[in-house]
Amino acid sequence: MPVFAPNLLNGKLALITGGGTGIGFATARELGSLGARIVIAARDFERLEKAVVALKAEGIEAHAHAVNIRDESEVDALFEAVVDQHGLPDILVNNAGGQFEAPAVEISANGFRAVVDLNLNGTWHMTSAFGHRLLEAGKPGDIVNIAIVVNNGSPGYAHAAAARAGVINLTKTLAREWGRAGIRINTVAGGTIDTPALEQYDRAALDAAIEKLPIAREGTAREMALAVAYLVSPAAAYTTGSTLDVDGGEHMGGTW
Predict the structure, then answer these.
(1) Would you say 60 and 6 are in contact if contact means Cβ atoms under 8 Å apart?
(2) Residue 191 CB-density burial (10 A; 0-12 exposed, 13-18 middle, 19+ buried)
(3) H helices present in 87-216, as ranges
(4) pLDDT tens track for 56-86
(5) Residue 32 in contact with residue 8, Cβ under 8 Å?
(6) Closest CA to 19 of 45, 34, 8, 3
């Protein structure tokens, strides 16, 4: 069911990392349904190709590019290829990320480093590469970072919470530095969202946590995508440096 005007993003080019599944794919579909041309990027190119086929079946112009966002040289190569083949994007959605559940005392230095490298450093590589090109071109743009709710700490996810909190603060800092150039940057922080990533967690523990939420259900990938669509739309033209919690009220009191 449409929520926004169907031609809201006509003429826009959106680059979405981690766009092959889950929130990334839902975001690609939502922005594409609003008229944006879509480029999805991730390490698993085979999965991206399947996502492109699905998007094209819905009449969305979509393209796939492989990238490891932890590798700065690969990120630069991605932007060179995207700009050469499709033009400089108008929208960047930093969705790629991931973590594993473990008590803090069981997280190794390498494990902590790997999660921070993916979620924080990877987001920085993409955002920096995009921001530099927008500033050089004198072009405005919109950036949305996908994070998790970290207001009350995240037991079992010390590495991910630290990285995502870094993303949220990076969002605020860059919003202040780049705002005069017409570059807006915001964060969508998700709670318990129904995606394939949830399959790694204990179902009973998830259900118990969800029962404590003010909105006692899982969120959907599309609800995250709709939040992204709002933030890159003219409706949010005066919004930057903000974090939009899409979490059923979890930010008011930790459920974990």
Answers:
(1) no
(2) buried
(3) 109-116, 122-137, 158-178, 203-211
(4) 999 999 999 999 999 999 999 999 999 999 9
(5) no
(6) 45
Domain ranges of the chain: 13-248
**67-95 core/surface letters (b: 16 or more CB in 10 A; e: else):** bbbbbbebbeebbebbeeebebbbbbbbb
Joined together, the tokens standing for residue 222 give 């599309």
pLDDT digits (tens, 9 = 90+) for 141-152: 999 999 988 877
Place of tokens 């940057």: 185
pLDDT digits (tens, 9 = 90+) for 100-147: 777 788 889 999 899 999 999 999 999 999 999 999 999 999 999 999
Under CATH, domain 13-248 is a member of which superfamily?
Answer: NAD(P)-binding Rossmann-like Domain (3.40.50.720)
CB 171 within 8 A of CB 227: no
Give the Cα separation of 179 and 165 in Å (integer): 21
Q: Tell me the pLDDT band of 255, cut-offs 50, 70 and 90.
A: low
